[in-house]
């Protein structure tokens, strides 16, 4: 399997080449009815046994949809509650809820990444925690910039659908060279974010998060990197499908996609706030 920028898809079980017991699978980028691809290196040890069917595109779509649905429900509830607390000038509980959701989501994500085992309950719990985290933040942003929540949701959905179309049509192919470029860009973005955070503690402003022109440009770059990370996520899920991995692994694919979508939504929300400040 090619490398990926998403830690959720790294170091998955590997094994010998071959097809799952149900025969070749059809991935995101392979039309129904076409001959199957040869097994990419990896995943052989996790092929679906005779008693368990291999995962399909529908499995990934359904599990991802369920995860997004849970995040949306908890996010809306958290946003409504955050706004009610903000109206009462009680920001302490809102910040506590935000911090709690972030910590729970982080802990669950680390457990899933290091365990490298699919889990429906943990994926849904992660989605619920991230929904609370994002909802609390969104509620506060909505108080300052009415309408920004819907714009951020539509923007995230637009990028997701757009990149899925780009991947499915083959307009941009995920090659080892592209993967290395994306991972390099991601590393650069993370280093700049950390540098900005550390220097900010000492009163040094790099201008990356102050809402100015440089901050807008940097945010656009981050959104672009996140969008290309989605391509790598689609490709990772596609390879899992082609490898004939058990259907339960669709939960792991959904988790990987959720981590990128959370990051993408936060950055789009941030960019919209910058634009409304101008």
TrEMBL record:
What Pfam families does UniProt report for this protein, alphabetically? BaxI_1
Q: Does the keyword Chaperone apply?
A: no
Transmembrane ranges, per UniProt, are 60-82, 94-114, 123-141, 147-169, 181-202, 214-237, 249-266
**What keywords does the record list, in alphabetical order?**
Membrane, Transmembrane, Transmembrane helix
Know the name of this protein? Answer: Bax inhibitor-1/YccA family protein
This chain's source organism reads Amycolatopsis tucumanensis
